[in-house]
């Protein structure tokens, strides 16, 4: 009695194209370098789509290694090294004949069943990475709000703040904040620590302003804004004295408007007048 062997298959709705997209997304986190990712995608792309969903068949790449090397722009030796690395990562099984030959009918070649067996693991990894990216974006947005708050508060500091040691401490700490484009490289632990410190610094500056009747929304009257590390040159522009033209306006208003010269009425267009005009024009 023959026992029909079954193999793991893709979940409903999944295709080999979706598998390629999934592996490409998690590749840096499973030790898959870009060059070897290209080899894996080449192998996956040359398997039958139905072999990924049938429990009675395995997705197998049985193409000639020499031809694959040429199409990938590699030497045969380089491709063998890549195949060995993919096998070591648990993504393929290399099953060939004693002489290294590969036959589709015999199921000999590069077997991709291990990739299907680990699909749930890679889906979970992808979802975790996406959640971390969303969390990172939220933290960066929060840091952006605090950065803007600090800048607004600094612009309303009075000139007397130059000599205040508390403000000197706050500004020195603010100068050490990492650049916005460097936040992603801090890692979540260091970024969270920075956000805690930035919150404390914002509170310190808010407290200082509140004690002096200032807020981050509106500076107090007669306070000259504090400018940090800037020197602005201003020019004093004298306003010309106002000229009182009220007398002249009254004089013009009381004067009589000039009489207009009446325009003579045009002559009536009688036959005699038309004859006279024509005779004058051609005289």
From TrEMBL:
Record field: compositional bias (Pro residues): 259-269
Domain Plasmid replication protein C N-terminal: 6-153
Pfam family, one: RP-C
Domain of life: Bacteria
Biased segments, Polar residues type: 219-229
Region called Disordered, residue ranges: 219-269
Protein name according to UniProt: Helix-turn-helix domain-containing protein
UniProt organism field: Sulfitobacter porphyrae
């Amino acid at each position: 009695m023959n026992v029909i062997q079954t193999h793991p298959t893709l979940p409903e709705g999944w295709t080999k194209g979706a598998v390629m997209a999934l592996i490409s997304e998690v590749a840096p986190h499973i030790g898959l370098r870009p060059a070897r990712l290209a080899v894996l995608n080449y192998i996956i792309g040359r398997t039958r789509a139905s072999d990924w969903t049938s429990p009675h068949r395995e997705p197998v790449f049985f193409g000639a290694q020499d031809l694959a090397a040429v199409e990938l722009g590699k030497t045969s030796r380089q491709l063998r090294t890549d195949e060995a690395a993919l096998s070591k990562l648990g993504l393929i099984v290399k099953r060939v004949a004693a002489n290294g030959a590969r036959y589709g009918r015999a199921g000999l070649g590069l077997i991709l069943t291990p990739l299907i067996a680990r699909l749930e693991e890679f889906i979970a990894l992808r979802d975790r990475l996406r959640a971390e990216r969303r969390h990172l974006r939220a933290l960066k947005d929060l840091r952006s709000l605090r950065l803007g708050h600090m800048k607004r508060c600094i612009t309303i500091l009075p000139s007397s703040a130059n000599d205040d040691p508390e403000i000197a401490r706050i500004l020195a700490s603010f100068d050490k904040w990492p650049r916005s484009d460097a936040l992603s490289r801090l890692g979540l632990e260091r970024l969270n620590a920075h956000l805690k410190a930035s919150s404390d610094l914002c509170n310190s500056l808010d407290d200082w302003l509140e004690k002096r009747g200032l807020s981050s929304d509106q500076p107090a009257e007669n306070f000259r804004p504090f400018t940090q590390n800037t020197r602005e040159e201003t020019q004093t522009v004298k306003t010309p004295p106002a000229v009182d033209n009220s007398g002249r306006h009254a004089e013009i208003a009381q004067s009589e408007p000039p009489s207009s010269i009446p325009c003579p009425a045009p002559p009536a267009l009688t036959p005699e007048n038309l004859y006279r005009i024509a005779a004058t024009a051609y005289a």
